[in-house]
Write a structure and sequence with these properties.
This protein is mainly α. Helix content is about 55%, strand content about 5%. It has two domains: about 10-185 and about 300-330, Rossmann fold; about 210-295, Tyrosyl-Transfer RNA Synthetase, CATH 1.10.240. The structure holds tryptophan.
C-alpha cells in the first residue's frame, strides 16, 4: 500500500553511495532509470553514506558528495513530492535493524560475497568488520521498507539475493515479518563499462580519467573521452561479446537516444568508428546538459537540499519504525 495515496502500488528501494565524482555509469545504470518508475511505484531512494565509510573517506568530501548525490537525484528528474529521497544516517533504524540482522546472517554467507572479496583485495590495509557486514546493512535498508523491488546493477544482485535469504530465514523463525524483495534490472545500461578497459565496470575511482565519463564533464571533455575510447579490431558497429568496446558504446548510445542495437548498427553501416564515437559523445553531452545545469543550480541552494532531505527522513523514519518495532517484538526485546 502506498502510504501517501492509499493505492496498492509496489514499493521500490534503492541507493547510491556518496563517494567520489559520479559517472555516466551511475546515471545510466541507476538514477536515470528510477525517474521512469516514479509514477507507477512507491519509491524510496537513499544516499547511503553509512555504506560509504566501509572504505576510508575524507570527511569534507563525504559531506560534499552526500549533497551532490542528493542534488543529482533531483537534477535527474526525481520529484521529491512523488519519491522519498533521504540520507541513510538520518534514519537510525537502518543501523538498528542491521545489528539484529547480523545475528541472522552467517559468516560463511558473507565470506562468499564477491564484492567483499574484490574490495578487500583493493583495500588490503583496511579490511574492517563493516566492509564484511556491509551486505547486512544493505539488507536492512531494503527490508525496513518492505520493498518489493530493488533496482540494482548486476554487481549488486548477489547482495539482493542474500537479502532474500535473510528475510526468508527470519520469516520462517518468527512468522511473516518481511516482504521478500526482488532485484529489478533494466534491459540496457545495467552495467556501463570502462571506456579504456571495457571488460571492467566504469568506476568512479578509476585512476585513468579517460576510462570514465563524469556526469559533470563538459562537452569537449565528453567528446574527447569517447574519441579515445578503446574499440575492437574490425570496423563494424555491432553488438557482441567478442566486441566489448563497441558494445559498451552501443549501450551508452542506446540509453541516451532510445535507439535499439539493430537501429544503431543500421545507422552506422559503412561508417567508421570515428563517426560512431563522435555521435555517442554528442548524444551523451546533449543529454547531460540539462542535468548539469539543474545540478549546478541545486548545489547553490543548500537550504532546499536540506529541506528535501529532512522531509524524506521524516517519511522514511515513520515507515522504518513500524518494521523495526515489529522485529523487536518478534525477537523478544522489551518495548514500552
Ligand atoms: N551497495 C549498493 C552499491 O554499492 C548501494 C546500496 C546500499 C543499495 N544499500 C542499498 C542499493 C539498498 C540498493 C538497495 O551500489
Amino acid at each position: 500500500m502506498n502510504q501517501a495515496t492509499n493505492t496498492p502500488k509496489k514499493r521500490i528501494f534503492s541507493g547510491v553511495q556518496p563517494t567520489g565524482n559520479l559517472t555516466i555509469g551511475n546515471y545510466l545504470g541507476a538514477i536515470k532509470n528510477w525517474t521512469a518508475l516514479q509514477e507507477d511505484y512507491d519509491c524510496l531512494y537513499c544516499v547511503v553514506n553509512q555504506h560509504a565509510i566501509t572504505v576510508r573517506q575524507d570527511p569534507a568530501n563525504l559531506r560534499k558528495s552526500t549533497y551532490e548525490t542528493l542534488a543529482l537525484y533531483l537534477a535527474a528528474g526525481l520529484d521529491p513530492e512523488k519519491n522519498t529521497l533521504f540520507i541513510q544516517s538520518h534514519v537510525s533504524a537502518h543501523a538498528e535493524l542491521a545489528w539484529v540482522l547480523n545475528c541472522y546472517t552467517m559468516f560463511g554467507e558473507l565470506s562468499r560475497m564477491t564484492q567483499f572479496k574484490d574490495k578487500s583485495a583493493k583495500n588490503a590495509d583496511n579490511i574492517n568488520a563493516g566492509l564484511f557486514t556491509y551486505p547486512v546493512l544493505m539488507a536492512a535498508d531494503i527490508l525496513l521498507y518492505q520493498a518489493d523491488l530493488v533496482p540494482v546493477g548486476i554487481d549488486q544482485k548477489q547482495h539482493v539475493e542474500l537479502t532474500r535469504d535473510i528475510a526468508v530465514r527470519f520469516n520462517s523463525i518468527y512468522s511473516d515479518t518481511f516482504t521478500i524483495p526482488e532485484p529489478y534490472m533494466p534491459k540496457t545500461g545495467t552495467k556501463i563499462m570502462s571506456l579504456q578497459e571495457p571488460t571492467k565496470k566504469m568506476s568512479k575511482s578509476d585512476a585513468n580519467e579517460n576510462a570514465t565519463v563524469r556526469i559533470l564533464d563538459d562537452k569537449d571533455t565528453i567528446i574527447r573521452k569517447f574519441n579515445l575510447a578503446f574499440t575492437d579490431s574490425d570496423t563494424v558497429v555491432r553488438y557482441g561479446e567478442d566486441k566489448p568496446g563497441v558494445s559498451n558504446l552501443m549501450s551508452i548510445y542506446s540509453c541516451f537516444t532510445g535507439k535499439s542495437f539493430e537501429e544503431i548498427t543500421k545507422d552506422f553501416e559503412g561508417k567508421g568508428y570515428g563517426d560512431f564515437k563522435l555521435a555517442v559523445g554528442e548524444a551523451c553531452a546533449d543529454a547531460l546538459a540539462p542535468v548539469q545545469s539543474r545540478f549546478k543550480e541545486l548545489m547553490k541552494d543548500k537550504a532546499y537540499l536540506e529541506a528535501v532531505a529532512k522531509n524524506g527522513a521524516e517519511t522514511a523514519s515513520y515507515l522504518a519504525r513500524k518494521t523495526l518495532s515489529k522485529v523487536y517484538r518478534k525477537v523478544g526485546f522489551v518495548q514500552f
